[in-house]
Design a protein that fits this description.
The complex is a heterodimer of chains A (177) and B (629).
Chain A (H helix, E strand, L loop, with lengths): L3 H4 L2 H4 L10 H15 L9 H22 L1 H11 L14 H15 L7 H28 L3 H28 L1
Helix pairs in contact in A: 3-4, 4-5, 5-8, 6-8, 7-8
Chain B lengths: L20 E6 L3 E8 L2 E4 L9 E2 L1 E3 L7 E2 L1 H5 L8 E3 L9 H7 L7 E2 L7 E4 L2 E3 L1 H20 L5 E6 L5 H13 L4 E6 H13 L3 E8 L4 E9 L2 E10 L4 H16 L7 H17 L5 E7 L5 E7 H13 L2 H11 L8 E5 L6 H11 L3 E2 L7 H13 L9 E3 L6 E5 L3 E6 L7 E7 L9 E7 L9 E9 L11 E7 L5 E7 L7 E6 L5 H10 L4 H35 L2 H18 L4 H14 L1 H15 L5 H8 L2
Parallel strand pairs in B: 1-11, 11-12, 13-18, 15-20, 18-19
Antiparallel strand pairs in B: 1-2, 2-3, 2-4, 5-6, 5-7, 8-9, 9-10, 13-14, 14-15, 16-17, 21-22, 21-24, 23-26, 24-25, 25-28, 26-27
Classes of the chains: A mainly alpha (177), B alpha+beta (629).
Chain lengths: 177, 629
């Protein structure tokens, strides 16, 4: 009962070559063009069938866009296409140096209530994490270019941790304001 | 009542016929209806030339509800029968209403599981029924001034409305006999009104402070696409809170004992609202309060005092603005302009705070009280098919995260907030005990980690899981949010591909049966009218299905169908066209379903082709060439 387009991989669906490095403008242009053709609003006077298909296709399109526009998710998706699972939930073994660093950052977050200027502390932390993530995006680009999939897997797993801390920083911001 | 249009039997109306559509802003304080006439979107006035309909309904002893200005006029004399700000109760549970009790002095009645209802002299009414009364009044106004039945409407809701509040709004519309083309977020509607008017490009913040709700949305406007990047807000914060803060001050200053005195409370609120409005233009106003017997107080309220009273409330909107920016991945200086929406943004204090925060002057050349209805009317006109050449598109997001209860009373997020909609996401879960054959799927909405801090939307019982050891079953739960922002949830056991039974119990929404019961009781000659209404609905549905298929066949019939397929579809069409002129609603429904089945393959081929066509000229090769530069 599924349509052919829903079976395509996200790159093919969005008309992009399968690669980690992608042109963000092409992604955005193709995304908007497809939305203009597929969005349910374009089918409000059509049959129930076509309406339902439009919802399915745009849901798929939104998921494809969300996956490809986020470097970590794009990396993980490319690995899955290679048959490599990043196993964040079951395989929790991480390099010791990375874990030490994580513990330090977490301690800084926990001290938030006892420092003079918690906002400055949060801004500094957010900037540091942002830089670390940026470094890893470059690392992923190199790893995929060299077809070093195990290397890419390690980087994606580290990014997962970094994004989690980013979420916690945001939650602390919400709590403070 | 408007007359029903009937075309000659067997002959379908021309596909390009102008259809009547309207946009409705169902507000906390006032409601409006707008429509596009001769290419211009405008709000529709009542017989006396008034555009705003006060969202007030009076249920007196004489049974006939009174809506609008006439109801507003009696609200101090009949405070318990005259319901205002009902939007604040939509989709709310008992606990929420308890916290609102100070601000909503009515006689609440518990109903089983759902929203609390209100006891009046003519009976008990739910918030959905009260809202439907307002919608019915607007519908009559539009059908009279447009001269025909409305094909469909777009109803606006606060962007920050949750699932239960949206569902309640949709229920109210069907109770009022309206076909909802789309629930549209209020700030997005305002952006459409500005966007189609001025055609600006860039990133805009829409700050919408209404009577009872606050939204902030950040949109990216580019080449006719309105993309919401993020939204945030508070669905229980608005100008009503200004009125209450001022009223409390008035009562305190007057020294009149108002505890438990509904009439004085109402009077203080009216004086407060009037003073607030006057202080937008004047620096000081005289205020009076009287208990109608021996106590009479007169005083003055100046703008500085007003500012000090409402400032704490205005400040509460700023964290949401910050969060919205952050979720959009932007900084304040990325914002190209700020649009002010909602009656409460008329207040100079609000304007100063907002323009100060964003560092940009505000756009406000469209009346902030009408802009939402106008945007909704523009969208309705497009959705109903009156502007086939228009390539405007709205891309909206879901305001709150959607999750599921997992072990330990924790919430696992399935769809994060600010995800573009429509969206579908699936996640797998497993059993906790050996031999477990059932599972409760508890659907929640909100940002917090614990179940008790989120809004419970529904509980599903998934039964028929094959008995296995703990952790072996694989239950795939799928959340789907449609373009109205409404959620549906399904679950199935995957290892043995067993179709499992799902039971839906909406926590706050109304079941279809409840809606039907209300519909029935709202008609005097219940049975006859119900039958007639059902038949008419089916006839209208059949007509629009026939039209849609005819248009599709004309465009792509020869391309995608062989003779055999074509004749099968034609046969179904003829059958439906014939039954449509009769009075058998069940038969019409059956024939419509048969036509839908017969066109499935055709629709599927058309959609596939649509995808191919969309990216023509955006091919992979071309991309590689340009990216190689």
């Amino acid at each position: 009962m599924q349509q052919d387009d829903l079976k395509k991989d996200f790159f093919a669906f969005l008309g992009l070559p399968i690669a980690f490095d992608l042109d963000p403008e092409a992604l955005e242009d193709n995304y908007r063009t497809l939305q203009k053709h597929l969005h349910p609003d374009k089918f409000s006077m059509s049959t129930e069938q076509e309406k339902r298909m439009a919802v399915q296709l745009t849901a798929h399109l939104n998921e494809a866009q969300a996956t490809l526009s986020n470097p970590m998710r794009r990396g993980r998706y490319l690995l899955v296409m290679q048959g490599i699972d990043t196993n964040e939930e079951t395989d929790t073994v991480m390099p010791a140096v990375f874990l030490m660093e994580q513990i330090e950052i977490r301690e800084q977050l926990e001290e938030l209530d006892s420092v003079d200027d918690p906002w400055a502390r949060l801004d500094a932390l957010a900037e540091m994490i942002g830089k670390k993530i940026k470094d890893r995006v470059q690392g992923l680009s190199k790893a995929f270019a060299a077809k070093d999939f195990q290397g890419a897997r390690g980087i994606v797993r580290e990014m997962q941790f970094l994004h989690k801390i980013q979420d916690e920083i945001e939650q602390s911001e919400d709590r403070l304001s | 009542m408007a007359l029903l249009q009937i075309s000659e039997p067997g002959q379908s109306t021309a596909p390009h016929e102008h259809r009547l559509a309207a946009g409705i802003d169902l507000g906390t304080t006032n409601s409006l209806i707008a429509s596009v006439r001769s290419g211009i979107a405008e709000t529709l006035p009542d017989d006396s030339g008034r555009h705003l309909l006060p969202s007030v309904v009076r249920y007196g002893k004489d049974k006939n509800p009174v809506v609008g200005h006439a109801a507003l006029a009696v609200q101090t004399t009949e405070p318990l029968n005259t319901i205002s700000s009902v939007k604040r109760l939509m989709g709310r549970g008992k606990e929420d209403v308890l916290t609102l009790h100070d601000t909503m002095p009515y006689r609440f009645v518990d109903t089983e599981g759902g929203m609390p209802s209100i006891q009046t002299d003519s009976g008990v009414y739910s918030p959905v029924e009260i809202s439907a009364e307002i919608l019915r009044t607007l519908r009559n106004r539009a059908e009279e001034s447009l001269g025909g039945d409305l094909t469909g409407v777009v109803i606006t809701v606060p962007a920050y409305f949750d699932e239960a509040q949206r569902q309640a709004t949709k229920d109210a519309a069907s109770l009022a006999g309206l076909k909802v083309l789309r629930l549209l977020n209020e700030p997005t509607a305002a952006a459409v009104a500005y966007g189609l008017d001025q055609k600006p490009e860039g990133v805009f913040a829409i700050y919408d402070l209404g009577g009872g709700t606050f939204d902030i949305s950040i949109l990216h406007l580019k080449k006719g696409v309105f993309e919401v990047l993020a939204t945030a807000g508070d669905s229980a914060l608005g100008g009503d809170d200004f009125d209450h803060a001022i009223a409390d001050w008035l009562i305190e200053q007057s020294g009149i004992d108002a505890s438990g005195n509904h009439s004085i409370l109402r009077q203080a609120l009216l004086v407060a609202r009037k003073a607030k409005e006057q202080l937008s233009n004047e620096t000081t106003v005289t205020v009076e309060l009287s208990d109608g017997k021996n106590q009479h107080w007169q005083g003055a309220l100046d703008r500085d005092t007003l500012t000090s009273l409402i400032d704490p409330i205005v400040v509460r909107t700023l964290p949401a603005c910050r969060r919205c920016l952050r979720d959009a991945g932007l900084k304040v200086d990325h914002i190209d302009g700020v649009v002010l929406v909602g009656g409460s943004t008329r207040s100079p204090q609000v304007r100063d705070k907002v323009t100060g925060f964003f560092g940009k002057p505000a756009l406000l050349h469209i009346d902030p009280e009408r802009v939402v209805a106008i945007g909704a009317a523009l969208q309705a006109d497009i959705l109903v098919g009156n502007k086939p050449e228009e390539d405007m598109l709205l891309l909206d997001v879901t305001p709150l995260s959607l999750g599921i209860e997992v072990m330990g009373g924790m919430v696992e997020k399935i769809i994060p907030r600010n995800s573009p909609i429509p969206i579908a996401k699936a996640q797998e879960f497993t059993t906790y005990q050996d031999g477990q054959t059932a599972m409760v799927i508890h659907v929640l909405q909100g940002e917090r980690e614990m179940v008790q801090d989120c809004r419970s939307l529904a509980r599903f019982n998934l039964r028929g899981i094959p008995p296995m050891v703990a952790g072996a079953a694989r239950i795939r739960v799928t959340y789907q949010v449609d373009a109205d922002g409404l959620l549906s949830v399904s679950a199935r056991e995957e290892t043995r591909n067993v179709e499992s039974f799902i039971e839906v119990k909406p926590s706050y929404g109304l079941t279809d049966a409840e809606v039907e019961a209300m519909l029935r009781s709202s008609f005097e000659h219940a049975e006859d009218d119900m039958q007639e209404r059902k038949l008419r609905e089916k006839q209208v549905e059949a007509e629009s299905l026939l039209q849609a298929v005819a248009v599709a066949l004309k465009a792509d019939g020869e391309r995608f169908l062989n003779d055999e397929e074509r004749s099968a579809i034609d046969k179904c069409m003829n059958k439906l066209a014939q039954s449509k002129t009769g009075r058998d609603a069940v038969l019409i429904d059956q024939n419509a379903k048969a036509l839908n089945r017969a066109t499935y393959e055709f629709a599927s081929r058309r959609m596939d082709n649509n995808v191919q066509q969309a990216l023509k000229g955006h091919s992979v090769n071309e991309f590689e060439e340009t990216s190689g530069k």
